[in-house]
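quick one if you have a minute, typing this from the bus. below you get a single protein, a line of residues and a line of whole numbers that encode the local backbone shape. could you go over both lines and see whether the tokens make sense for that sequence. anything you notice is useful, everything is just below.
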Amino acid sequence: MEPDPHKTGITFADFQQLIRQMYFEKDVARGIPGTFMWLMEEVGELSAALREDDPKNREEEFADVLAWLTTIANLAGVDLTEAVQAKYGSGCPGCNQLACLCP
């Protein structure tokens, strides 16, 4: 029996590939500037959701922001797993500690 990805989780790499499979043709047609505007709209919706007492809506808006950010990464040719590992894989980029000690 294969593991259920809904129960076992999804990696950044899996998610980035999933978003690419679902939306890449539409995303290319829209381009980075248009896609960035969608991201900003979703950030606004997340801001509103954070002010409300609706945990499900907050979860959905966080997922939407992550999806639109991932879409832009796909369009820009950025591998999010590599980018996160390079920037944060050794801890804080400023002090290189796992728990930031920056002033």
